[in-house]
Amino acid sequence: MHIVVCLKQVPNTTQVRINPETNTLVREGVESIVNPFDENALEMALQLKEAHPGTKVTALTMGPPQAAEVLKEAVGRGADSVMLLCDMAFAGSDTWATSYALSMAIRKMDPAPDLVLFGKQAIDGDTAQVGPGVADWLGLPCVAYSRRIEIADGKAIVERAYEDGYEKLEVPLPCALTVLKEANVPRMASLRGKMAAKRLVIEPMTAESIGADPAKLGLSASPTRVVKIFSPPPKTGGVKWQGEEPAVVARKLVDLMAERKLI
Amino acid sequence: MGLKIDLDLCTGCGACVSVCPFCALVQRAEDGKVEVNEACTACGACVEICPVGALSLSVEEKKVAAADLDAYRGLWVFAEQREGQIQEVAFELLGEGRLLADRLGVELGAVLLGHQVRELAGTLFEHGADKVYVVDHPALGTYTAEPYSEAMSALIRTYQPEIVLAGATSIGRGFIARVAIQVDAGLTADCTELDVDLEKRLLLQTRPAFGGNIMATIICPDHRPQMATVRPKVFKHPNPESGRTGDWIVESLDLKDPVVRVLEQVNAMKNEVNVAGAEFIVTGGRGLGAPENFKLMAELAEALGGAAVGASRAAVDAGWISSFHQVGQTGKTVRPKIYIACGVSGQIQHLVGMSSSDTIIAINKDPDAPIFGVADIGIVGDLFEVVPELIKALRR
Question: What is the CATH number of the domain that holds A83?
């Protein structure tokens, strides 16, 4: 079996702060990380590899040269091969153009994958659109929000979460799945893996080398455009009660809720 | 293409580097002048900040005949139904869609996909739809992304709406991204604010990004339809107009058989109140310290007469409670009458999901916790002392 995992390098958004004076993003000291949900997709691929000997796991990413770091991390954890898409032709791609580029890269892979995995969404854009988009370009069935995946008899048995429950699905291979955080706990890179990652030489693939149509790449091919970026207006709180006995404060709160007809 | 940098003008001051939300600008080692990398989305944040005007945007607009865009008219809402129940978010979108359609002077359409669901059209009319497009087909009986996207794309190609809105739910997000590829349309996820530019007939789609740290307004200038998903509870449920009716368009399509088979459905929240629609929510965060302390949250929820129990990402990530309870950017967006946050610090990604609640009450030991910034009533104190007293007072 050949499993492709798509990974994205993202800034750690939990470290991002807003400068209250200029109302702009403070990015100093914000590290670049593997998108956390993609770590679950990678872990899923590695667990399936362990369960099905002979499986090959390929990590794929698109981004600036430093995005190679996420591929090294993937090899450190056990991925067998990598592909980096790196070309200014991809710059400014929205989810439509990104999913096209990734799909063309996947078409280039030999053997063709049986399974393409994604994290449920990336924490910088939070769109959850690239996984299903790639599936559509490739003409593959796709299940988003998978919390459990098993492979048997050329089929994937998948649990898909919805708002208040989940359903068990049977999906023929090849297919694309997006993976939830609750699916597993990602492993750390092994020592042997780290050595392999160190030796790894990554030859970036360009738009031309994956045979992508330049008219479908980058900013000019992207249907959506960002026209404005701004910081959300600062919030101001209401009353703050401090230093009172818990019993007193509790009664005060219940009285206030009753007064405002909230209860 | 995209951002142009005039290196003769660039002084290497670095002002642009620090405002770029996408880490797309880097200063060259040799002279500090700026270069742009593949992460650039041409958002323009750097152009405004550059003190010497070295940065500019050049976007080659696609040559799309205006007539082609003008062929698209009308605003559609995907009327998500599950097991014959129209989902709340569909009504919320009809409410907002009605306002936008009126401003654009177009009809509001609702798209109903399923099997034996025609009788649901009535309530869609009552909630503002002028037309209901129904595809009633066995392949749509239980949701799977492939037939859903096939049906939606076919309707879009035939009737050419200029705007399509869907709920950012597991179903909505799961299939609408395929539709965007199939009909060659722009799609913006998780919008929290919609507006229209009447002159250009553009949908202005505003959404949080970077975990809620910034807001971005996005347009789709030369593709139609303009598609967006919106989270549940972002817009209010409109008042239905009893007896209001409209036109039915029943489309018979020859859909492919579903390739994904549904084996079993499990409702995990059967015995619990779902945070998604709840009027009262009690949320526990990292401050609870241990999974068993969610019992205290459940007790408080019960004392409030059946509130839902929510959880912050920290509590879910720690494995204390299932992700069905999670509120925030990666969880659910909620808009209850009362939201009580206990031991929740108030990371921006949490605030994005709950700050439009009617009344927010926060209990936290740390007087500087960001949650107090959005709380109507903030109680600085130990939740393990305050909550039991609150339960007592409520029961009285």
Answer: 3.40.50.620
Closest approach of B34 to chain A, Cα-based (Å): 15
Domain count, chain A: 1
Q: B178, B215, B300: which to substitute to probe chain A, counting the most A Cβ within 10 Å?
A: B178
Contact A25 B213 (CB under 8 A): yes
Tell me whether residue A18 is in a domain: yes
Same fold, B66-250 and B275-395: yes
Q: CB A95 to CB B177 under 8 A?
A: yes
What are the phi and psi torsion angles at B331 (to 5°)? -115, -135
In a domain, A197, yes or no: yes
Q: Which residues of B touch A240 (CB under 8 A)?
A: 367, 372, 375, 378-380
CATH topology of domain B2-58: Alpha-Beta Plaits (3.30.70)
Exposed (0-12), middle (13-18) or buried (19+): which is A197, by Cβ within 10 Å?
Answer: buried
Instruction: With CB atoms and an 8 Å threshold, state whether A263 touches B382.
Output: no
CATH number of B66-250: 3.40.50.620
Q: List per-residue pLDDT tens for chain B, 396 residues long.
A: 478 899 999 999 988 888 887 778 889 888 889 998 887 877 878 888 888 989 988 755 555 666 688 999 999 999 999 999 999 999 999 999 999 999 999 999 999 999 999 999 999 999 999 999 999 999 999 999 999 999 999 999 999 999 999 999 999 999 999 999 999 999 999 999 999 999 999 999 999 888 888 889 999 999 999 999 998 889 999 999 999 999 999 999 999 999 999 999 988 777 778 898 889 999 999 999 999 999 999 999 999 988 999 999 999 999 999 999 999 988 899 999 999 999 999 998 899 899 889 999 999 999 999 999 999 999 999 999 999 999 999 998
Q: What is the nearest CA distance from A232 to chain B, expressed in angstroms?
A: 6
Domain ranges of chain B: 2-58, 66-250, 275-395
Cβ distance B380 to A241 less than 8 Å, yes or no, reads yes
* CA distance linking residue A41 with residue B293, whole number of Å: 31
Alpha-carbon distance of B376 to B362, in angstroms, equals 8
What letter would DSSP give residue A190?
P
Distance from CA of B216 to the nearest CA of A (A): 4
The CATH superfamily holding the domain B275-395 is TPP-binding domain (3.40.50.1220)
Residue of A nearest to B40 (CA): A92
Residue B25: strand, helix, or coil = strand
Which helix (H) or strand (E) segment holds residue B104: the answer is helix B88-104
